[in-house]
Amino acid sequence: MFEERYAYYKKAVEKQLSEYLENKNIEPLLREAMAYSLLQGGKRLRPVLALAANALIVDDFNECLPLSCAIEMIHTYSLIHDDLPAMDDSDYRRSKLTNHKVFGEDTAVLAGDALLNYAFEVAIDNALRFPDNIWNHMKALNYIASAAGATGMISGQSLDLNKNNLTVDGGYISSVHEKKTAALIMGALKAGLQLGSPTNKQLEAISSFGYNFGLAFQIVDDILDITQDSITLGKDANKDIENGKQTFPSIYGLNTSKTMAADYSEKAIGALDIFGDKAWFLKDLSAIYLNREH
Questions:
Q1: What beta strand segments (E) does 64-175 contain?
Q2: Can you tell me the mean pLDDT for 110-134?
Q3: What residues does 96 pair with on adjacent strands?
Q4: Is 97 helix (H, G, I), strand (E, B) or coil?
Q5: Across all residues in the chain, what is the average pLDDT?
Q6: Where are the beta strands (DSSP E) in the chain?
Q7: pLDDT digits (tens, 9 = 90+) for 252-267
Q8: Domains of the chain (ranges, CATH numbers)
Q9: How far apart (Å, rounded) are the C-alpha atoms in residues 246 and 259?
C-alpha cells in the first residue's frame, strides 16, 4: 500500500510539473534548462509530504497539488544553485550531469532563479482559484517562503559555507541542517496541512514530525555520502569529505549517527499519533527513509 500511494502522489506531481513547463512564454533555452533539472526524476519527497499532510484532513488533493509542485520547483532551484562551482561544485545530480555542466553557469543561475519565481507564480495563481480558502493559502505560502528564505534554507546554506569563525560542533551541525534540510520539509508539511484548516495541536504535531524526520533524513544522507558509491547515490559520493564539510558522522561517528537517526525517526512517528490511522503513510515513510540506500 505504501509504494502504491507514493507512486500515486509522485505521478500526479510529475504530470503537473510537465504541464507547467509547457509554458511557451518562457524563453526556449531557459525552459530547456529548467526542465532538465525539474523533470529528471528524483524522490519528489517534499511535494509528496505536502500531499500526504493535506490528506490527513482533506479527502481530495487537487487544491494542494499546484502548491506541492511549487515546493518541488523551490527544492530544484536550490539543488541547481547548490551544485554550482561557487557552492559545492558538483558534477552529477540524479545520475546526470549537473545543470551548469550542461548549460553553463550563467544559464544555470537563471534556471534556478526562474524556478524560484515560477514557484510563487504557480502557488499564487492556485490560491486565487479558492477565494473562500484564501487565508489558508496565504498562510501556507508564508510557511514555504519562510522555510526557503533568509531565515530558513538560505541561512542553512550560508552557515554551511561560512563556518571559519564558528565553533564546528554538534550544535553547529544541527543548526545547519535544521535550516538547510528540515526547514523546507517542515514548510511542505505545514503548508499541505494548512489548506485543510488544522487546529493548533495538529500544526504542532506536523511541525514536530517534520523537524524530527528532517534531521533523520539528513543524518542518513550524511551516512550514505561516505558508505555508498556515486552510481548508487546518483550524485558525487564523498563530496562532503572533499569539500572539508563537517557532518553528523564526522562529529559523532558512524554508529552514533545511525542511532541518532533512528531516535529522530522514532520521535517523528510518535508525533503523528494525534492523526490516528490517517497517519499510516507518513509513519511508514519515516521508517522506510531511515533505511534507504540512496
A1: 92-93, 96-97
A2: 98
A3: 93
A4: strand
A5: 93
A6: 92-93, 96-97
A7: 999 999 999 999 999 9
A8: 2-290 (1.10.600.10)
A9: 18
Q: 16 to each of 11, 38, 69, 292, how far by Cα in Å?
A: 9, 11, 7, 27
Assign 245 a pLDDT band (cuts: 50, 70, 90). Answer: confident
pLDDT tens per residue, range 52-84 = 999 999 999 999 999 999 999 999 999 999 999
Give the residue among 16, 28, 29 at the shortest CA–CA distance from 63.
16
Q: Considering just the CA atoms, what is the radius of gyration of the chain in Å?
A: 18
Inter-residue contact 205 to 242 (CB < 8 Å): no
- Report the predicted TM-score, pTM, of the whole model to 2 decimal places: 0.94
- Is there a contact between 164 and 134 (Cβ–Cβ < 8 Å)? no
C-alpha cell at 161: 559555507
- CA–CA gap between residue 70 and residue 32 (Å, rounded): 18
For cell 496541512, name the residue: 193
The β-bridge relationship of strands 92-93 and 96-97 is: antiparallel
List pLDDT tens digits, range 199-232: 999 999 999 999 999 999 999 999 998 887 655 5
Query: What angle, rounded to 10 degrees, do the helices at 65-82 and 183-194 form?
Result: 170
- For 210-228, b where at least 16 C-beta lie within 10 A, e where not — what string? bbbbbbbbbbbbbbebbee
Q: Which residues are registered as beta bridge partners of 77? A: none
More confident residue, 232 or 131: 131
Pick from 52, 49, 48, 54: which is nearest to 16 by CA? 48
